[in-house]
Specification:
By secondary structure, this protein is mostly helical. The protein is about 85% helix and about 0% strand. Helix 1 packs antiparallel against helix 2, helix 1 runs parallel beside helix 6 and helix 2 runs antiparallel to helix 5.
Amino acid sequence: MTWLPIPAVTVPVLLGGLAVVDGAFAGFRAATGRNARIRKRAYALAAARRGAAVSAPGLAATAVVSLTGAAGEGHQYRDLVDAGTRMLAVVAPYAAVVVLSLAAYRLLPMRESTFVILVGLGPLTLVRPAVVAVAVAAAGLGSGGWLIWAAAVTAAVGVLVVEPWVHRRWYREPL
């Protein structure tokens, strides 16, 4: 029995985990500002769960495209892992800045946390589609194979469609 090297398992798991966490945040963003209640922890958690659940079909589609194409065309799984590594090189720093901004928002006093929202999380949300596009380009430009492009574009669509989908499905009207 042959074992896969650590990156061959780690890279897809990290990308999948980032996609689910991003989906949870997208669900939260879709619900933000739609509820005027004071206590809305359960509302926010439900929105995050919905976003994470909506991200699952995008992950599944990416896995199907990647694994079916790799098996059918004789492409190497290694090429997919290399492309995923290039995507992580783009997405991981962005995710780290988002996590640091969220930690600052949570830990700082009210005035400073509001400042973090204005200069950190707001603009980071606006540049998110551009970061995803750069990650797709990084994945595809390193290899040029159709499978890499198909998997990267499928992943990008799967990530970017979550927030509009959750918004239209559950949060179109304010409470």
